[in-house]
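COMPLEX REQUEST
Ligand: C2E
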Amino acid sequence: HAKKAGGGLAVFFEDDMNRLASERAQLESDLRHAVQDGELEVHFQPLVDCRSGALLAAEALVRWHHPTRGAVSPATFIPIAERSGLIEELGSWVLDAACRNFAAWQRAGYPLARVAVNVSSRQLRSDRFVATVRTTLAKHGLRASQLEVEITESVLVDDMALATARLEELRRLGVSIAIDDFGTGYSSLAYLKTLPVDALKIDRAFIVDIATSSGALALVRAIIAMAQATGKTVVAEGVEHQAQADLLRQMGCYCIQGYFYHRPMSAAALGGLLAEQRRPAPLLGAEALDH
Ligand code: C2E
Ligand code: MG
Ligand code: MG
Ligand code: MG
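STATUS: Structure written out below.
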């Protein structure tokens, strides 16, 4: 009898797994056409100087408007693109769109220092990646220092030697490098001594409790101190409340990204915001992102 019940459970579980697998396969085949069919769009979220409210930079975040499912989260489809190899084409498309929009903002005289693009492990490992970056920058007339590449620590775990080589090539070009979701990976902190990293982006998971937990606050203070001691810019991600922004400012973390200031928005919406915020002293606050 027990065996029978266990068997039933296994069948139920297997059904679930099959459903998930076929859902994934369906999304993967839909994603294959998404770039050509114009279903992807790049949104941008500003990084803000919490002392002045000035916009410092913008992070490109891809959006997929699926014809029948509506918006699919990048947290769902980026891993699918990564495993299926589609990430190279998708990533190049995002890089191009990010640079094209940034170049237009530059021409309009908007004082954004740079645009940040997320790069996944497989993309960074590709032999074509650095050439694609170089060509895309040239195509849009951007200086390499106007691009920041965001990688997560998992990239370093996948193949430390190759990732290091690639990051050094990017650095020689003049591209800046940020560690995204800092603190959530399983890699050794030793890389901070040797890798050409310009900025640490403290993950939202650490920021969420700083106004309510002294332990969380102490941890973030320590991360900020570590970034400062190693000469890196520090960015706080996922700031949703005034109290969090105030605490970060008191601790010397001035570059903030989060819903408290701005949600990710379309390129047109960010263009409008930049036009509105243009000031007589255009580089006001730029030292918060000084790299
Ligand atoms: P990420 O690079 O860490 O990007 C930050 C994510 O946090 C974004 O989610 C953003 O919308 C969200 N966020 C920003 N501020 C707040 C806040 O105050 N509260 C909360 N709850 N969330 C906030 P999104 O756009 O859904 O992207 C999720 C992840 O997908 C990104 O995390 C990144 O890892 C990946 N991703 C997005 N676009 C790309 C891309 O073009 N290429 C690659 N390889 N990955 C991408
Ligand atoms: Mg990111
Ligand atoms: Mg992040
Ligand atoms: Mg993240």
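REMARKS: The radius of gyration is 21 Å. The pocket of magnesium ion (ligand 3) is lined by residues 180-181, 201, 203, 237 (CB under 6 Å).
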